[in-house]
């Protein structure tokens, strides 16, 4: 696998190798040994799969509070998304900054988002399927989020408020500045 770093340490683009011929391709999309050696020495406990029927569906910005904080390894298996990770570790030199990348089924790249980051995505095609491995089990009591359109974050989403397809929950998240410190930065 090819692993690429971003300006925000910890978030990584993971590109599995694909071996193709006239029949299609083969790709090893997950290897515990390779992930622990090249990305993060962490284990996963749950896989999730979502389908977004309509282009412009926006999910996020989500996180889980400790003790249920989650790291996520995300990928698209059909369609494409604009994917975002925002650093919310207080004391971090990149607090409030984000990484964004287009993930699609054609390339098969994956994004590693460690605990202490918000995560969200917007679909770029109808019928987009999104898979993610998580390091912690879902906890409704620890489920939280930040407004996807928080102007302090400066995310250039590919949709606006009028065209974004959102859940009621995602319409009601607070701005980042209104959250108490939840994650602490550890150098």
TrEMBL record:
Site positions (Participates in a stacking interaction with the thymidine ring of dTDP-4-oxo-6-deoxyglucose): 138
Active site residues of this protein: 62 (proton acceptor), 132 (proton donor)
A single GO BP: dTDP-rhamnose biosynthetic process
Record EC number: 5.1.3.13
Any Pfam family matching the protein: dTDP_sugar_isom
Biological or metabolic pathway of the protein: Carbohydrate biosynthesis; dTDP-L-rhamnose biosynthesis
CC annotations in GO: cytosol
Keywords, ordered alphabetically: Isomerase
An annotated Gene Ontology molecular function: dTDP-4-dehydrorhamnose 3,5-epimerase activity
Catalytic reactions of this protein: dTDP-4-dehydro-6-deoxy-alpha-D-glucose = dTDP-4-dehydro-beta-L-rhamnose
SUPFAM superfamilies referenced in this protein's UniProt entry, alphabetically: RmlC-like cupins
PANTHER family, per the entry: DTDP-6-DEOXY-D-GLUCOSE-3,5 EPIMERASE (PTHR21047), THYMIDINE DIPHOSPHO-4-KETO-RHAMNOSE 3,5-EPIMERASE (PTHR21047:SF2)
Cited function: Catalyzes the epimerization of the C3' and C5'positions of dTDP-6-deoxy-D-xylo-4-hexulose, forming dTDP-6-deoxy-L-lyxo-4-hexulose.
Homology family: Belongs to the dTDP-4-dehydrorhamnose 3,5-epimerase family.
Subunit structure: Homodimer.
Record's protein name: dTDP-4-dehydrorhamnose 3,5-epimerase
Organism: Pseudoxanthobacter soli DSM 19599
């Amino acid at each position: 696998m090819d692993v690429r770093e971003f300006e925000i340490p910890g978030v990584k683009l993971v590109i599995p190798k694909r071996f193709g011929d006239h029949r299609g391709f083969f790709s090893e999309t997950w290897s515990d040994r390779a992930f622990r050696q090249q990305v993060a020495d962490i284990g996963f406990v749950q896989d999730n799969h979502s389908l977004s029927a309509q282009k412009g569906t926006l999910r996020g910005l989500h996180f889980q509070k400790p003790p249920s904080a989650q790291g996520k390894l995300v990928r698209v298996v059909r369609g494409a998304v604009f994917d975002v990770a925002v650093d919310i570790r207080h004391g971090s030199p990149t607090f409030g900054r984000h990484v964004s990348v287009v993930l699609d089924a054609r390339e098969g790249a994956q994004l590693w988002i460690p605990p202490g980051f918000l995560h969200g995505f917007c679909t770029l095609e109808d019928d987009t399927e999104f898979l993610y491995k998580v390091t912690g089990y879902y906890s409704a009591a620890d489920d939280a989020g930040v407004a996807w359109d928080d102007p302090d974050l400066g995310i250039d989403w590919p949709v606006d408020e009028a065209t974004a397809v959102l859940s009621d929950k995602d319409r009601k998240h607070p701005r980042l500045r209104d959250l108490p410190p939840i994650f602490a930065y550890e150098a």
